[in-house]
Design goal:
Order of helices and strands: HHHH
Number of helices: 4
Shape: globular
Oligomer: single chain
Largest sheet: none
Number of strands: 0
Structural class: mainly alpha
Distance between the termini: 40 Å
Amino acid sequence: MTDVLTLPATYAEWRHCITVSCGLKLARSYIEQRLDLLRDENDAQTNRFIALYGREHHQRVVNWFYKAQME
């Protein structure tokens, strides 16, 4: 049997993934840290994220972190 990774397609799915499935709190400091990394295309983690999930998903995730920051 093969496990298939389903990427979140909506903000609600992403938020559930982060807060429920992963058990993380979307605290301001966490959001800012993630945004700093995700906006730095010279960062190895960011490049790996883009290589694995694509630029379109990367941009969606950045936008979702911005949305979470505004809540």
